[in-house]
Amino acid sequence: MSYDIEKAVAAFRALAEEQQARAEAIKLQGDFKDFSKLDKITIGICGGDGIGPVITKESANVLKYLLKDDVDSGRIVFKDIDGLTIENRIAHMKAIPDDVLEELKACDVILKGPTTTPQAGDGRPNIESANVAMRKALDLFANMRPVKIPEQGIDWTFFRENTEGAYAVGSKGVNVSDELAMDFVVTTTEGTERIARLAYEYAKNNGKERVSIINKANVIKTTDGKFLNLCKNIGREYPDIITDEWYIDITTAKLIDEKRRKDFKVFILPNLYGDIITDEAAEMQGGVGTAGSANIGKKYAMFEAIHGSAPRMVDEGRDIYADPCSMLRASAMLLSHIGRIEESVRLEKALDYCMFEEKKLTITGRSDGATCREFAEYVMDTLTTKFGAEA
Ligand code: IPM
Ligand code: MG
User: Residue 68, exposed/middle/buried by CB under 10 A (0-12, 13-18, 19+)?
Assistant: First the structure.
């Protein structure tokens, strides 16, 4: 067996230094951007891969429809950002090519289609996920994912930590030898406190009586232990809110326990557990195609579908039948984030109506269902006829 411990130690040293510097940098950050004080808001539209360009374009049209007055006056500017495609990323051998990152940074908020992530061993260069890279590059530390099933009394909001945990150096694990591979999990004090505070503030401002901290601190003692203790400390500042703590394994079970699951309201989760649990929850709501996702940082925010790029739909010529609902939910979250609460509520209502109530058009992903464009137009018609500005 050949191995080089010194090389592995050097690799770990570099990671520890990089993450220590990141932890220090978080402390220097300012407060959240105040959109009401901006003269101009730039919304970046970034199509991504697979079905991404189709669902993103149609969602952008709905946003432009809702924001027409601001677009006409120049207060809101839409900016198309190409180049976040798998082909271009491979050509540059970068998760986000430099010029694309500059364009992203020139925006205040971004609506982003799903991007294809090469998997180790699939024949493509093993570049980092564009999603994960963007969350890190723009420091989008909070991944907020709501899931609601009103008829079952389910109203959950997940606050997934989005830049640390198993993802922080997920593409920088170390092969110590042919026999031994190691990855690393990262928890920082500032990184944990900021997600916990956001979740508790959300609970307080939205009348949610319970916050559940999800962890596996019985086994992953150092990083999950730190995460749990810091979240509990923040929770002590909110005595009116009940804090409870759940291991991730039993959480997956309790979400399908009809008697217990209604008690959950707001969740705080380390990155990987948040990734897993939010797919489970979205599936219960009607599928990952129904849930939106907000990636929030102090300076930037990015809104996306929680599903992937579905390259098979494109290969089979079915991309025009892609379901835009997840992207439209994300668009509603974008509106709320930039302070357009009324438009956000109208869009949510129109989506509820089109998806669950009237259901004049349904999306099946195939030619027996509506196209993405037809569905987006249905939503806009519904906004005009049923949920107009004065309504
Ligand atoms: C998500 C996705 C991403 C993640 C993938 C595409 C890297 O599953 O947004 O949940 O793991 O975070
Ligand atoms: Mg996921």
Answer: exposed
Rounded CA-CA distance 220/272 in Å is 13
Going from the Cα of 39 to the center of ligand 2, the distance in angstroms, rounded, reads: 35
Question: What pTM does this model have?
Answer: 0.94
What are residue 167's phi and psi, to 5 degrees? Answer: -90, -20
Q: What is the DSSP pairing of strand 210-215 with strand 174-175?
A: unpaired
Ligand 1 pocket, mutate which of 119, 131, 158, 280 (most atoms under 8 A from CB): 131
Residues 289-341: tens digit of each pLDDT:
889 999 999 999 999 998 899 999 999 999 999 999 999 999 999 999 999 99
Per-range mean pLDDT, top range of 116-120, 150-154, 204-208 = 204-208
Domains of the chain: 1-30+141-287 (3.40.718.10), 31-140+297-391 (3.40.718.10)
Q: 53 is written with which tokens?
A: 């360009």
214 CA distance to ligand 1 middle (Å): 18
